[in-house]
Please model this.
Amino acid sequence: MFTNAPRGVPLVAAATGLALVATGCSGAGGAGADGDRIVTVATVSNPQMEDIEALASEFNDAHPDITVEFVVLPENQLRDRVTQDIATQGGQYDVVTIGTYEVPIWAENQWILSLDEYAADPDYEIDDIIPTVRSALSHEDQMYGAPFYGESSFLMYREDLFEEAGLDMPERPTWEEVEELAAELDDPDTGTAGICLRGVPGWGELLAPLNSVILTYGGQWYDEDWNAHLDSPEVEEAVTTYVDLVRDHGQSGAPNAGFTECLTTMAQGDAAMLYDSTVAAGSLEDPDSSSVVGDIGYVAAPTMETEHAGWLWAWALSIPSTSTDPEAAWEFVSWATSKEYHQLVGEELGWERVPPGARVSTYDIPEYQEAAEAFAGPTYDAIDNVDVEQPGVHPQPWTGVQYVSIPEFQDLGTLVSQEISAAIAGQQTVEEALAKSQEYADQTAVSGGYRD
Amino acid sequence: MTAQTPPETARRGPRTRDLTRAERWLRRGPLLPGLLFVIAMTQIPFLFTVYYSFQSSNLLRPDSDSFAGFANYGSVLGDPLFHNAVANTVLLTVGAVLASLVLGLGLALLLDRAFLGRGIVRTLMITPFLVMPVAAALLWKTSMYHPVYGLLNWVLSPFGVQADWVNDFPLLSIVMVLTWQWTPFMMLIMLAGLQSQSPEVLEAARVDGAGPLAVFRRITFPHLRRFVELAILLGTIYIVQTFDAIYMITQGGPGQSTTNLPYFIYLQAFRSFDVGEAAAAGVIVVVATLVVAMFALRVVSSLFEEES
Amino acid sequence: MTPVTAPPAAPSGTTAPRPGSVRRRRRRRPVRPLPGLLAWALGLLFFFPVLWMFLTGFKQESQASTNPPTFFFQPTLDQYSAVIGRDFVPYLLNSVQASVLSTILAIVLGLPAAYALSLVRVPAWRDSLFFFLSTKLLPPVAMILPLYVIARNLGALDDARTLTLVYTAMNLPIAIWMIRSFLVELPKEVLEAARMDGARRFTEMRRVILPMIAPGLAATALICFIFAWNEFFFAVNLTASQASTVPVFLVGFISGEGLYWARLSAASTMAALPVILAGWAAQRWLVRGLSLGAVK
Model:
């Protein structure tokens, strides 16, 4: 009766065959000429990394046998993707872009290679790397990530609005002074917020500025014995200051504002101050993206109990231990983080686009000094002043400023940031948010095996 | 119209028994390639997922794997964040499916009549369904909901409405985006249902003096039932799995107010790297939705009934 | 209401349903302007966000987010040239390959399966049908790690063929459900004609049933294509540099530093254009195809 029905089978087989025979196409993200050695680079999407891609042909000219291929993803996806690949020994990447948070943890797991042997080459001039950045990218005194660029945080403010209001920005403001200034400058009539601060959940979003405030108020996440202290009076004071400031004088939509949203607010002239990453300055001084070019002043991160309060972050290029050709990978890493690369960017793409915060010598280039006149000095000072071993008042059992360098922190930080974000949204009080956060932090210390 | 038929087992029974073995395999033949393919592609990963769900395994701590028994299931089921995610998933899904269904039906009724530029309007209407969900989510977050630069507030400000949409109404904001995306899909199915009505029956009803409302209630609505059920089924399957909109717009916040099950599992898998608990949560979701789907399809729905 | 001449009884069986009779009926109805206007208003409302995204792609970043919104501006092609400058073509080719081949496979595998589950009624057809549906219930995020490990062991990571197969598995249940809904609603006479013996029967199948459900198949294919084209999660996780698709290319514009909304809008527009054009061109089929199943 149905003798013909199975005729479908060969057809299916044919179609499957068609699918399997079809070639994988030429490959997305390929960069230039054929080479025998392929280096696959996972990068985070931002302007500096775009520049690397644009200049990769220069690398290819110098290394005709190496083909570089790029995978460009936003920060979160990149982190998820690369972690998954390396943890399962997937071996898809030869170079990965990771931050100061990951480097020590991944080095501990032996997921990435120590770069010391390679970097000992005198041409690489490893001593030219800004010391704070280098130590943040080291584990047991070996460098595991070559810094591509680094950032700290500082306070940006609208000089024109300050002048109009007859106010002066102190050279080294405290958070109390910032509170007063924000109250003065907050102008609902013109829609200008007193200050813009991040509020969106995420350990790399809200927690970065907030932790730098907690530290300078004398607070801490954990003491040296891994006892959580998120319910201490210092932390509560710091978080209350932050939450009140953004609720009373901050931008609208604060609980969903991350770096990009804050940058937009400031660039549109809708905030008088912005406490955020030093890399924001580049966009604020770019006429294509900003309407306040030339009106911005830059001072150090506001402090209370500590002398300095900026955070420290660097994107670094590391070589996974699963890379099939670490030598070729190093060729690329050393090229992209070299002095020569900075020259190349300046000459080819413009001096304001040189990656900041990686090498000391960058700040001695006259063209760069001129192009980044407004913010180069404050950026360098901010990065140089960070103490990654003990950024706050108390000693801490890890290296790093605005995060806790343990694998569990991504989860813990996300949970805590959700609670604080809810406090910014007015769904709960700061005390409630911190009580829950303390509980999470306490559980994490035990479940992670840091204390009993 | 749905023809109610006697239970099909009664009818099918003898027929199947009469077949020889070879004949039975010939009848199954066309089904097998698709069935085997789907089993290979989905059940093998699923078995791995079940295996992981009994392991204590953290990606960031290699060599920490060990057998965990039901510990992962216990900690997921006892986690208040998981309960919260279940509640959010139900609210989100019911809200978005119902809203897009009602809107889709209304639009389909409008588009079922002739008017100037009907083809253009239909074209405009289906476009939201074609935009990539990732891009659509960012579009709403950046251009529509933003409290200062958002068009929603700009349009509504003359009426005195000034809201911080995503923070004041987080779930509603997500539901609105999903409704925007899924209404065209619902509309297409409803429109198909409307246009497949038998014109003779409609005319006959009108000739008999039935008003438009009566026609809709007595004829159109029963006719649409299968279409409504299909739309609900397909819409629910996709909307339960909503991830992009939450990931892009709220990151599950503020607090936990928009964390749904897929996002909860994502946090387990990619923030705590707790492979075991993520797998256990996945298995729980499958089992729970399976029970709901079974109930809906076999008890409530007419989709499994034997057609004429 | 205008008097009615009964339309000719729809010829049963071997011909496709005739939308003509439907249309004729409608034309005779008196035209009331209000529903038309309402439909236009709602259509524009739904379309507006997409239009706004399209416009934003021609702005500078500083015009992309303003208060009040910028409606009039000097259009710029800067964003588009930046997008094209990032080597869009390989991503496009990968997307085309994965979406088109997976759609073909889903139809080729789905049609016989749907046939077996409707016209033939294999034993336990309900369970099979339910099984297909149940594979859609596991959140992709819960099985991505197993899938990744399997693909790694097979050496199938970063391969467009892997994506093709994953998308086929992802779309096949829906394809089977949709095609089956068309087959079960075919007029009885067609089935009887098809119930003749042997080789004749297969010919009947091909000559009669296939043409009748062709619009339905087209609608199914279009839906499969849309889902495959827009799929992001598997694409980002299973590929690296060789097999990445358009959605992955798209998120590469979400910048961690600096403003990106105008450029992302340009990229989104380019990424969505193929499906939007396909969807617009095929929407007539879509409605006819979806409705065809219910015509008796």
